[in-house]
Design a protein that fits this description.
Number of domains: 2
Helix content: 25-40%
Mean pLDDT: 86
Largest sheet: 3 strands, antiparallel
Protein name: 4Fe-4S Wbl-type domain-containing protein
Bound molecules: iron/sulfur cluster, zinc ion
Order of helices and strands: HHHEEEHH
Oligomer: single chain
Biased composition (Low complexity): 139-150
Region (Disordered): 129-150
Number of helices: 5
Strand order of the largest sheet: 1-2-3
Shape: flat
Low-confidence stretches: 3-10
């Protein structure tokens, strides 16, 4: 795991393949937006692919709650949201779901999604992927580039 904004130098274990790897420590001044963050992190994300500690990594950092930015558990996070992940990243690696009154409905599923936790069995049929913050970022950038109306 890495991320310069939180938990500098933390690790699940010194056996983790990212331990001591400087490429996993992304300085804040190296990126300005999520697209740039992905461009820096993606080339080293493969290291998480062979890591047996992905779930433990996420349990330790609790990226959604800590609004983590950086690489953790096979995913690239931006302020606690997943913006990119390995194909082999599995939802079973996310924290176990909190059971809420809304469970069994679309709202319950969204609550799990917002907490970046597993879907409970009753919510699973209602699951829909959420928007990626990178898409909103791209849309905002495109709008900035639109010429003024005559
Ligand atoms: S899952 Fe990735 S970031 Fe976490 S300990 Fe393993 S290699 Fe490091
Ligand atoms: Zn549920």
């Amino acid at each position: 795991m890495t991320g310069s904004r939180t938990l500098i130098g933390t690790h699940v274990t010194d056996h983790a393949p990212c331990f001591g790897d400087e490429d996993f420590a992304i300085a804040d001044d190296r990126w300005k937006n999520g697209t740039e963050l992905v461009a820096i992190c993606e080339p080293v994300l493969y290291v998480c692919g062979g890591c047996p500690y992905r779930a433990a990594c996420i349990r330790q950092v609790v990226p959604a709650k800590s609004l983590f930015t950086g690489i953790c558990g096979g995913r690239i996070w931006l302020n606690g949201a997943i913006i990119h992940e390995l194909p082999e990243a599995d939802s079973s690696e996310l924290p176990v779901p909190v059971i809420r009154k809304s469970c069994g409905t679309a709202a319950g599923s969204r609550a799990h999604r917002r907490a970046v936790e597993q879907q409970c069995p009753r919510c699973l049929p209602h699951y829909r992927p959420g928007p990626n913050p990178l898409d909103a970022e791209e849309q905002a950038a495109q709008q900035l580039q639109l010429p003024d109306a005559p």
